[in-house]
Amino acid sequence: MSIGGIGGIDSSRIQAMMEQLKAAASKPAASPLAPAGPAGGVAQPAKLDFADALKSSLQEVSNTQKAAQELGQRFVMGDDTVSLSDTMIAMQKSSLAFQGTVQVRNKLVSAYHDIMNMQV
């Protein structure tokens, strides 16, 4: 995977993140109190909520960053169970996840501006 420019990221990574958002949004909510549907008591699938999908994706990025930071601290403190390669890989994963999140945010802001500038 190539990273173009400083802080840039290729479109395949953005596409992969969008696929993850869609996959997270399509997962049914595991609620024991789900309402019964009209057809013989069968529950209807949960509605897809963009806000929930975005929140879960941001939480995953945050968790990745926290795990990488913890590994880095453990390595610096001399923990023999943490290798340098594991630490560097975790840091790169968190960096890529954050860069992907920033790119998605930039696309959302751009789309918002495009919509706001439309003639009605």
From TrEMBL:
Pfam families documented for this protein = FliE
- Tell me the compartments it is located in: Bacterial flagellum basal body
Q: Does the keyword Signal apply?
A: no
Domain of life of the source: Bacteria
Kinase as a keyword of this entry, yes or no, is: no
Keywords, in A-Z order = Bacterial flagellum, Cell projection, Cilium, Flagellum
Similarity annotation: Belongs to the FliE family.
The protein's matches in PANTHER family, at most eight in alphabetical order, are given as: FLAGELLAR HOOK-BASAL BODY COMPLEX PROTEIN FLIE, PTHR34653
Question: What is the protein name for this chain?
Answer: Flagellar hook-basal body complex protein FliE
**What organism is the protein native to?**
Massilia hydrophila
